[in-house]
């Protein structure tokens, strides 16, 4: 189990918390729940309701749907960030590729932190907007590819 100081050091390397003052990181670290998963275990499943963000402390996971691997993530990366603001169905499955240690931040604790610290709210919004921009760009790229293929008849 990691100490509070070790959790703070990890949080400093996580994009959404990288510019957060240490005293606030200490509050975040205090509410993180440490979880260990074995290689091959599903951490979240597409369609399940979720209300937690996960931070990878050690290990590697894949984000995937039924047919495609969307991405692989490793130490200091996060997944499940949408559910902190909207606890709707998960949009993908996340499976451990190797034994992995995670820290879970639940929505209730996160919202309490937001009430007290607007810095975290601004950073989360920036990360989510960046994600939406990337998704929009990928969508436009696929649409352009599809229309090029249709125009060429292939």
**In total, how many beta strands?**
8
Strand residue percentage: 25-35%
Oligomeric category: single chain
N- to C-terminal distance: 55 Å
Mean pLDDT: 86
What's the CATH topology name? Jelly Rolls
Q: Describe the main β-sheet briefly.
A: 4 strands, antiparallel
What gyration radius follows from the Cα positions, in whole Å?
17 Å
User: Judging from the principal axes of the Cα atoms, what is the shape?
Assistant: globular
Give the C-level CATH assignment.
Mainly Beta
Regions with little confidence, pLDDT below 50 for 5+ residues: none
So, CATH architecture? Sandwich
The total of helices stands at: 5
Task: Describe the overall structure.
The protein is α+β, with helices and mostly antiparallel strands. It has one domain (4-152): Jelly Rolls, CATH 2.60.120. 44% of the residues lie in helices and 25% in strands. The chain has 5 helices and 8 strands, in the order H-H-E-E-E-E-E-E-H-E-E-H-H. It has helices at 4-12, 22-31, 82-85, 107-116, 118-152, and strands spanning 33-37, 42-44, 52-58, 60-64, 69-74, 78-79, 93-96, 100-106. The strands form 2 sheets. Strands 1-8-3-6 form a 4-stranded antiparallel β-sheet. A hairpin with a 4-residue loop joins strand 4 (60-64) and strand 5 (69-74). The chain is globular, with a radius of gyration of 17 Å. The N and C termini lie far apart (55 Å). The model has no long low-confidence stretch (mean pLDDT 86).
């Amino acid at each position: 189990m990691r100490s509070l100081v070790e959790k703070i050091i990890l949080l400093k390397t996580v994009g959404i918390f990288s510019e957060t003052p240490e005293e606030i990181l200490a509050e975040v670290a205090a509410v993180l729940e440490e979880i260990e998963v074995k290689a091959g275990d599903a951490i979240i499943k597409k369609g399940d309701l979720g209300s937690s963000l996960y931070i990878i402390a050690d290990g590697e996971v894949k984000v995937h749907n039924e047919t495609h691997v969307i991405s692989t993530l490793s130490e200091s990366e996060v997944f499940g960030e949408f559910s902190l603001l909207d606890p709707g169905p998960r949009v993908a499955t996340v499976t451990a590729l190797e034994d992995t240690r995670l820290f879970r931040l639940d929505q209730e604790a996160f919202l309490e932190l937001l009430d007290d610290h607007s810095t975290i709210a601004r950073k989360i919004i920036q990360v989510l907007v960046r994600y939406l921009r990337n998704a929009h760009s990928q969508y436009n790229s696929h649409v352009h590819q599809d229309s090029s293929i249709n125009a060429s008849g292939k």
